[in-house]
Amino acid sequence: MATMTSDEISAIEDRFPQVFRRPPYKRFGPLLLLLGTVLYLAYAMWFFSLPQVLRESHWERLPLFLSQWISYDLQPEFRLDQPEITPKYPRFSALGENPDPDWVIKNPDGTFTVQIDGPAKSVTFDKTQATIVANGQTVPVSLTSGKPIVTGPVPNWITAHDDEIVAKMGFAGEVRVTVDRVKVRKRFLGWANFVFDTRSPFFGKSAGEVISLIVSGPELKPGTSNLALAGDNIWNNAQWQHGDVWTKLLQTIVMAFLGTLLGGIVAFPLAFFAARNITPSGVLSQVLKRFFDFMRSVDMLIWALFFTRAFGPGPLAGSAAIFFTEIGTLGKTYSEALENIDDKPREGVVSTGANGLLVQRYGVIPEVVPVFISQTLYQWESNTRGATIIGAVGAGGIGLKLWEAMRTNSNWANVFYMVLLTLLVVFIFDNISNFLRRRLSRTIHDYNRIQAERG
Amino acid sequence: MTISVTAPSVPAASGATDQMADTWRRQTSLRRFYTALGVALLLVAMFASMWFADEANAGHFFDRLPHILDFLSWLVPKDWNDVWRALFDIASPHDTGTQEFNFPLGRVYVWGGFYVPEYFELMLTTVNVALVSTFIGFVFAVPFSFIAARNLTPHPVLRLVVKRFMELLRAFPEIVIAGLFAAIVSIGPVAAIIAIGLHSIGALGKLFYEINENIDMRAEEGLRAVGANWFERVRFAGLPQVLPNFMSYTLLRIEINVRISTIMGAVGGGGIGEELKLSISRGFGAKTLALVLLLFTTIFIVDQFSAWLRRKLVGEQAFLMGA
Question: Residues of B with CB below 8 A from A376's CB?
């Protein structure tokens, strides 16, 4: 910034004493606040024993887990102590019943070659020796002396344990060699068997083949059309459980919708009796307001746990929990909006001699309905997000499914699939709600302006 | 109610008034038709949802309704004094060695015979999770919000990147972040802090940059005229205008985060949520009531305190509704 002389500075200081010579509590307030925050953070670090937790955490798992969101691996194992070397795949492997991938090659001389990433990252082995190729280096491993021994220098991407040689090849996978077996993990980008699982008759067929089967092929399962069979196979895909996931997602949506709507319906009449300027009785107003506070402060979690016990796990419990919380939240916001209305239209209707109900209908409701609807939509939006979480305690919806998929730490691709669907739903509902609220916003803008003018 | 319109200033004889009344009537009936249609659709959706929720639930509504009070019966303790004893970990005369009544077991001894009751310790964990994660949210949301504000952004491309990033943080289910970090930093409050903190960055950042976009730009122009750089302009022209509103929204976020951290607790994030879930699922009446009482009181106090402070900071504006 431009520099000033000390005279100019002191002249400005004299002109604006309220800026430059403030009382001590104002001058040192921010500093004290900062000091307090720092002290609190130090306390919190001790409280959560943060240094220890961070020391014991496994950050190396993070990239691994994240890569599993969008990839899958195949793990063939080759026993070397059998008369003949044959590849074995785990049960339920993504390749189905009769795997014969082109990256496992049986050479004419009896050795096997497994290409983890083309010939550049591969392993070739027989019962006496394995040759690991990666990063432009070729590393021979001798298997004859009862222990796997790397011949020559050990590069840094290979870890030589006493009884096992582990060669890590980054994202592509890894090779583990012992004297009696070779284990390969090869990682593929994408989601395996997303449409048809390995039990489906459509498994392994290209999109064109599937379409021609559906359009003109012979019935694969007698008595069922191929279209129905394909639909059924997709819906009941054992690995991805499309049917279950989509049903649970719908449950989450329904929970938020039902809870918010019913909450709004119940809160609407109550708010009129709670608003101080409308209610006939001050006691009633206080009682209702404390009731709203109660419903809000007994957390959604508590309601969810109670209703899960009362109705059993499922969306009914979730809807009821959101419903009860929303009576409090919407009741409070509705009654606050009612207390802030402009009294003139109401007086006008009262002066015509209309009865109590008609005064509300023509003097109050036209003014508050846009605000009510906007508030309700806002709550609906936030409940759609919230319903995911309370689902995890058993209140129905996708939350529990997400939580269960995560517990094993092995199903991250499924987790990501459900996350994507949840994000999509939140995105769609945000936009619907935003669109509706924008249409109402002019009215609300006027309302807020009147409030601002009134102070 | 029908309102008869008489307009003395308009010449009575002309057909113009009739025409006006006619148009008005047509418009109203059209609007009423649309309103009725909307309400009807909403009701259909509501009943369909009710049916769907009931079908998918383990127990059905009308089957379970008569038993609602049975479910409340386990909640009523044999001795109401046990609620206090459970809350403060005082030995109960009904103690038979089972977990349900062995209250002193949970005492957290701090110094000699002085102890913090178990539930207070757990409540403190939950509140601390909320406070620390709100702090994380605030610290990151402030710079992000200035980058994401249309009028203050250092670069439009950067603005778009930061905005999208915050949207992602906001929409990403907290429970997944918590689950991911539970596998990395071990299950417990730290994973919950990371999850709620990341969510708070997105949630606060959005509110903050909307405030930033509505500031009075004359102060910024003045600083720009004397050659202030971006940081100086934001610090001396932006921040003083928006800080009260920032603090107000941060307090609101603390209220929300206390609730979320309770729920996170119930799915493994530590704190009072976990204990409450256990207590309800095992049917410990006195313990459940003690926990609900403590949780209710805490949330109530946090809400009231935050509302009071927000009113002091920004006045009634804190309670107006955003369009």
Answer: none
- Predicted confidence (pLDDT) per residue in A386-421, tens digit: 888 888 888 888 988 888 888 877 788 899 999 999
B59–A314 C-beta distance less than 8 A:
yes
Q: What stretches in chain A show pLDDT beneath 70?
A: 1-2, 92, 441-455
Residue B9 has pLDDT above 70, yes or no: no
Q: Is the pTM here over 0.90, yes or no?
A: no
CB of A317 within 8 Å of any CB in chain B?
A: yes
Tokens 């021609």 — which residue?
A212
CA-based torsion, B93, B94, B96, B97: positive or negative: negative
Chain A contacts of B277, Cβ < 8 Å? 305, 393
Residues A176 and A261 in one domain: no
Say which residues have a Cβ less than 8 Å from residue B33's Cβ, sequence separation at least 6: none
Enumerate the β-bridge partners of residue B266. none
Closest CA to A451 of B282, B185, B308, B319: B319
How many domains does the structure of chain B reveal? 2
Cα–Cα distance measured from residue B313 to residue B323, given in angstroms and rounded to the nearest whole number: 21
3-state helix, strand, coil in chain A (%, to 5): 60, 15, 30
Task: Give residue B219's domain range.
Answer: 118-319
Neighbours of B317 (CB within 10 A): 15
Structure tokens at A305: 């746990």
Structure tokens at A127: 């019962």
Residue with tokens 């020796």: A129
Joined together, the tokens standing for residue A255 give: 């929970």
- Residue B6 falls inside a structural domain: no
A176: alpha, beta or left? (left if phi > 0; alpha if psi -120 to 50): beta
CA distance A334 to B117: 39
Task: List CB contacts of B212: < 8 A, sequence separation 6 or more.
Answer: B145, B146, B148, B149, B151, B152, B238, B242
Q: Looking at the partner chain, which of B45, B180, B320 has a beta carbon nearest the beta carbon of A448?
A: B320
* Whether B151 contacts B215, CB under 8 Å: yes
A357's tokens = 């109900």
DSSP code, position A183: E
Bridge-partner residues for A124, per DSSP? Answer: A113, A131
Across the interface, which of A293, A337, A371 has its CB nearest the CB of B300? A293
Kindly determine whether residue A309 and residue B276, on different chains, have CB atoms separated by under 8 Å: no
The rounded distance, in Å, linking the Cα atoms of B183 and A214 is 44
Residues B151 and B282 in one domain: yes
Q: Which domain holds residue A179?
A: 72-189
Most A CBs within 10 Å, among B110, B132, B263, B295, to test the A interface: B263
Instruction: Please count the residue pairs, one from chain A and one from chain B, whose beta carbons lie less than 8 angstroms apart.
Output: 212
Q: Provide the residue type at B94 as one letter.
A: H
Instruction: Read off the tokens for A333.
Output: 């916001």
B14, B46, B73 - which closes a domain: B73
Q: Do B263 and A294 touch (CB under 8 A)?
A: no
In-domain check, residue B88: no
**Token digits for A389?**
């979480």
Residue of A305, A354, A402 with shortest CB distance to B175: A402
Q: What distance, in Å, lies between the first and last C-alpha atoms of chain B?
A: 32
Q: Which residues, 6+ apart, have CB-to-CB distance to B23 below 8 Å?
A: none
pLDDT tens for A107-160 read 888 888 888 888 888 888 888 888 888 888 888 888 888 888 888 888 888 888
Q: Does A315 touch chain B (CB under 8 A)?
A: yes
In a domain, A53, yes or no: no
Whole-angstrom distance, CA of residue B276 vs CA of residue B274: 5
In Å, how far are A309, B51, B54 from B62, measured between CA atoms?
Answer: 15, 12, 9
